[in-house]
Write a structure and sequence with these properties.
Oligomer: single chain
Strand order of the largest sheet: 3-2-1-4-5
Helix content: 40-55%
Strand content: 15-25%
Mean pLDDT: 92
Shape: globular
Radius of gyration: 23 Å
Distance between the termini: 50 Å
Number of strands: 8
Number of helices: 11
Largest sheet: 5 strands, antiparallel
């Protein structure tokens, strides 16, 4: 019988209530040889896949110790063992082994598991549908050109290094959900400029393509000189200006459109520049238009709800309904109230 296989996020979910034995495919993010306070050698190995990361230790008397001697960061591997929750330290594994993947297995692995691939395709399709629905031809063409030029990189970029959507493809998921929220908010507040808000939502974190983008064959998020020197907001403004300038020929046909193209460009750039909301959080300016304010709160809402989602999966519970303190939220979280279930209709038999 084939060994059951799960990704790290699913293993983390299962081990909240029970131990699980099986196999996971992952990439070695870091591998460091250390010694305990008693002088016993061990390897500290951090693994990452498209869903999450996992830290395991291979002691000198364990089957994985010798294997770690021949492995290095970046190697795609298979990890097998019994995984369990070692509170308060997180997931651990007993008698685990690690072995390198074949080239064929590695190529398939970097394409992502079926659930991850389907989720990214669904989110990217949603983004394309929202772009296709834009009425302003300038914003629509700008968004289309961005997706044509950078769509592949956009699909694999992480939304952050930690805290929320910090995974390969996380930016695509974050952006798609934000565009769904923005679209719904425009129905509740019809005075908002839907074209501007949706386009600003698509572009708000586009600078992260050069700040938090994993390589084609990898899940770790490397550091980029551009990201460190400029930050994603500045890079995003530069990207939009560059694509906008490339549309100069088309813009000649839109000189009579209202509002004029320069105002459209400036308002779009303002959404990118102000989406962090406050100067102390990295925005060069604070939101000064209704659309910029809406974008800031949509971004913050999706990030916060993702932190709750991750917290329920990974945090240790200090009581049946209360978790330990979640660092990005800076407080403990409680299990949510379940939705009301209407009682069954009485039988008239």
């Amino acid at each position: 019988m084939d060994t059951e296989q799960k990704n790290i996020a699913k293993i983390r979910e299962i081990t909240q209530t029970q131990a699980w034995r099986g196999r996971l495919l992952a990439q070695i993010e870091s591998l460091v040889r250390k010694d305990s306070s008693a002088g016993k050698p061990f390897w500290e190995a951090k693994f990452r896949d498209a869903s999450d990361n996992l830290l395991l230790r291979a002691w000198s008397d364990s089957p994985a110790f010798a294997s770690c001697e021949s492995l290095k960061p970046g190697d795609p591997v298979a990890v097998e063992g019994e995984f369990y929750l070692n509170a308060p330290y997180g997931i651990d594994s007993r008698r685990w082994t690690v072995s390198p993947l074949s080239e064929e297995e590695a190529n398939a692995f970097f394409q992502g598991d079926e659930d991850s691939r389907l989720a990214i395709e669904k989110d990217f399709s949603s983004i394309e549908e929202f772009v296709a629905s834009l009425a302003d031809p300038r914003l629509k063409l700008l968004a289309e050109r961005f997706l044509q030029q950078h769509g592949e990189r956009f699909r694999r970029t992480a939304a952050a290094r930690s805290f929320h959507h910090a995974r390969r493809g996380g930016l695509c998921a974050h952006t798609a959900q934000m565009m769904r929220s923005a679209n719904a908010i425009c129905q509740a507040y019809p005075h908002l400029n839907r074209d501007l808000l949706l386009t600003g939502t698509l572009f708000h974190d586009c600078g992260k393509l050069w700040e938090t983008c994993p390589p084609e064959r990898g899940f770790d998020v490397p550091f980029f000189t551009s990201g460190e020197l400029l930050g994603h907001i500045t890079i995003g403004i530069e990207i939009i200006n560059k694509i906008w300038s490339s549309l100069a020929q088309e813009m000649e046909n839109w000189k009579t459109l209202s509002p004029d193209s320069e105002r459209v460009r400036l308002h779009l750039l303002h959404l990118i520049a102000s989406h962090h909301g406050e100067l102390q959080f990295g925005s060069p300016v604070e939101p000064k238009t209704p659309e910029a304010t809406a974008l800031h709160y949509i971004d913050n809402l999706d990030a916060k709800l993702e932190m709750f989602h991750d917290g329920y999966k990974s945090a240790a519970f200090v009581s049946p309904e209360i978790t330990e303190r979640i660092r990005p939220l800076n407080h403990r979280i409680l299990t949510p109230l379940s939705k009301f279930t209407p009682p069954p209709e009485p039988s008239h038999e």
